[in-house]
Design goal:
Layout (H helix, E strand, L loop, with lengths): L12 H12 L2 H32 L2 H9 L2 H10 L9 H19 L6 H29 L5 H53 L13 H13 L1 H21 L2 H4 L4 H22 L2 H16 L11 H13 L4 H10 L6 H27 L4 H21 L16
Helix pairs in contact: 1-7, 2-3, 2-6, 2-7, 3-15, 4-6, 4-15, 5-6, 5-7, 6-15, 7-11, 9-14, 9-15, 9-16, 11-13, 12-13, 12-14, 12-16, 15-16
Length: 412
């Protein structure tokens, strides 16, 4: 599931509309796009199935939350060790190999009687390779579309991803009744295999930027340059922490109300889609930046209602409104993209994505651990309050805003 938190810079309305038509006529982009949607669908179904299975076996809010978001802990290992493969010489081959690893991992979850320890080990392994896959896919995307079409390409993938997650949760809840968790795992594996085949058939090999072999040293060097820049450090803090804590709130939906967890998760995804459409396509870059702080507050504030256990329809509306707040990621990512040299776009975007996913795992663990001591609704409200506090603290300390350096020159 965490993989669906991948909002990215979007183009203005007129440009994006024209760009979408042109992009879908590009065979290689269409292949990456279809493969991405299949991967998101598989991730959504398998995450929901695993969370349901763990909740049924253990009844533990902590283990249920970690089962749904635990893979995100391992993404940081990919960002710290081998993320430079995202800018390697043969990205198509790399992406295919990583897709095959995902296929094996998802298929293994379908084995009945697999111990929970083995399932969590699979989660961590898949999280590691997922971070590399994300960076590689984004680096390859920059090669198959013109520079002017890159932002519309990310926007189209993100908006469709939101709709896919909504459908995935709704369909996943129904499939669990008829197929059970193991049947859903099999379906997720089939979708992953199909996504791999689509890439193999439609995408050519591309030589990206580096002539030297990617590896641990190159990854560390680029990461050191990334974090040495004060503006980029502040942007990453704002991209990672409030977002991750709110995902922790969502990780408690199964514990809070198992019968309506699918509805709440779908509402969150619907709000995210709505926010992307309004903020990403209808607002200018300047207006997006001015609204970034308010959107980060909206991301967490509605979850404070869960402290009083509101009626289900009210809770669903609150979750939908909070989902709109995820669009705060758009202006922050636009600034990060402006400060990134072209030669390391894949790695920097992979690190940003991995850090965001890791914080989602941290948020899930924090919320799940807290729910072991207090009621799930109370835990949701407390974690949301911490997210609001972090946003206010970043605002006070000048975490984002006009003072953040911009432009290619600032990338160093």
């Amino acid at each position: 599931m965490p993989s669906h938190r991948t909002t990215s810079p979007a183009a203005p309305l007129a440009t994006a509309t024209t760009g979408y038509r042109a992009l879908l006529r590009n065979k290689e982009f269409s292949g990456l796009y279809i493969s991405f949607i299949l991967t998101v669908t598989a991730s959504t179904l398998s995450g929901f199935a695993l969370g349901t299975l763990v909740n049924h076996r253990t009844g533990s809010p902590f283990l249920t939350a970690v089962s749904m978001y635990g893979a995100t802990f391992a993404t940081v290992l990919g960002a710290l060790t081998l993320m430079s493969v995202a800018d390697g010489e043969r990205p198509r081959r790399t992406l295919l190999l990583l897709q095959l690893v995902s296929l094996v991992g998802v298929a293994a979850q379908a084995v009945p009687g697999l111990p929970l320890a083995a399932r969590f080990a699979l989660l961590l392994t898949l999280g590691f390779f997922q971070s590399l896959s994300t960076g590689t896919r984004l680096g390859l995307l920059a090669e198959v579309v013109p520079s002017s079409a890159y932002a519309p390409a990310r926007s189209l993938m993100n908006v469709t991803s939101g709709a896919t997650v909504i459908t995935g949760y709704a369909v996943g809840a129904a499939l669990l009744r008829y197929l059970g968790p193991y049947g859903v795992f099999v379906l997720a594996a089939a979708l992953t295999a199909l996504g791999t085949a689509v890439v193999a058939v439609t995408v050519r090999e591309h030589s990206i930027r580096f002539t030297r072999r990617p590896g641990l040293r190159r990854t560390w060097t680029t990461n050191a340059e990334l974090f040495a820049h004060p503006g980029r450090r502040r942007l990453l803090l704002n991209l990672w922490v409030p977002n991750g804590l709110v995902v922790g709130c969502e990780a408690l939906f199964l514990s809070y109300d198992p019968g309506r967890a699918g509805t709440f998760l779908a509402a969150a995804s619907a709000g995210m889609l709505l926010g992307d459409l309004i903020v990403g396509r209808l607002l200018t870059a300047d207006r997006r930046r001015r609204l970034a702080f308010a959107l980060r507050l909206l991301l967490a504030a509605p979850f404070l209602l869960f402290a009083v256990h509101p009626p289900a329809p009210v809770a669903a509306v609150a979750v939908l409104l909070a989902g709109v707040g995820f669009a705060a990621t758009l202006p922050l990512q636009e600034q990060l993209l402006e400060q990134t040299p072209d030669a390391v776009r894949g790695q920097v975007q992979g690190v940003e994505s991995a850090g965001r996913m890791t914080w989602q795992g941290i948020g899930a663990a924090v919320a799940g651990g807290l729910a072991q001591c207090v009621a799930p609704g109370t835990a949701i409200a407390v974690v949301a309050g911490v997210s609001v506090a972090v946003t206010l603290l970043c605002r006070t300390s000048g975490g984002t805003g006009p003072g953040v350096p911009q432009g290619r020159a600032a990338a160093g």
